[in-house]
Amino acid sequence: MQPAVFAAFERICAERHAGGAVLEIGAVPSDESLLCLPALAAAREKIGVDLARASRHRDFEIVRMDANTLDGFPDDRFDTVLCNAVLEHDPFFWRTLAAIRRVARPGALVAIGVPGFARRPPTRPRALLRRLRAAPVLGRLAAPRLDPLIASTPTLVVHEYPGDYYRFSADAVRDVFFAGMDDVEVRTVLVPPRIIGAGVMPASAR
Question: Against a cut of 0.90, is the pTM above it?
Fold first, then answer.
């Protein structure tokens, strides 16, 4: 896991006093697991789920379970739910989002990170491409190659694990992942972008 991503989750969990019963979707048995965040050191319980295998690491257990249902857990089970670099590999990611909402109790913190694409201020190379494109003759000749570069935005390389299906915008994270939640924040880190959002499950019924 990129240190900047780990740090972003650490900040969210520390500032929002995450803890209690904590669930990580897509947990790994290593110190790169979000369950190893210093902010979660005093958590009452830590559980990870993984589709491939069950395992243990440090003070948490990882159980084999399909995140599309999380059917091994009852409703309102967790105080904190974390998920990073998983939903892009999930062909039915909306089912996982629904399962997260089901197992997160009212008032629970939910934090999710995904690779995405983001609006960026014009960079020096892009500004140079725009000037080249505006050149009277050369620009017209080079337009077929320049226009796609000018219109593009960086995103993380495809990395099958086993499949790689999606990239998300900050709007998708805010308006889809955290729709109806309270205290929502969405931030972009790194280039290519990783988009990390957090929100609190509302007290009202789902």
Answer: no
Quick one: residue 31, left, alpha or beta (phi over 0 = left, psi -120 to 50 = alpha)?
alpha
What are the start-end ranges of the H helices in 30-108?
Answer: 93-103
138-151 vs 124-134: helix axis angle to the nearest 10?
A: 150
Neighbours of 191 (CB within 10 A): 13
Residue 62 has a CB neighbour count (10 Å cut-off) of 23
User: Which of 77, 74, 79, 85 is CA-nearest to residue 20?
Assistant: 79
- Of 76 and 52, more confident: 76
Q: What is the DSSP letter of 123?
A: P
Do 16 and 43 contact (CB within 8 A), yes or no?
Answer: no
Closest CA to 174 of 189, 183, 185, 165: 185
Residue pLDDT, tens place only, 156-171: 888 877 899 999 999 9
Q: What is the DSSP letter of 43?
A: -
Overall average pLDDT of the 89-118 stretch: 97
Q: What is the pLDDT of residues 62-91, one digit of tens each?
A: 999 999 999 999 999 999 999 999 999 999
Distance, in Å, from the CA atom of 184 to the CA atom of 29, rounded to the nearest integer, reads 29
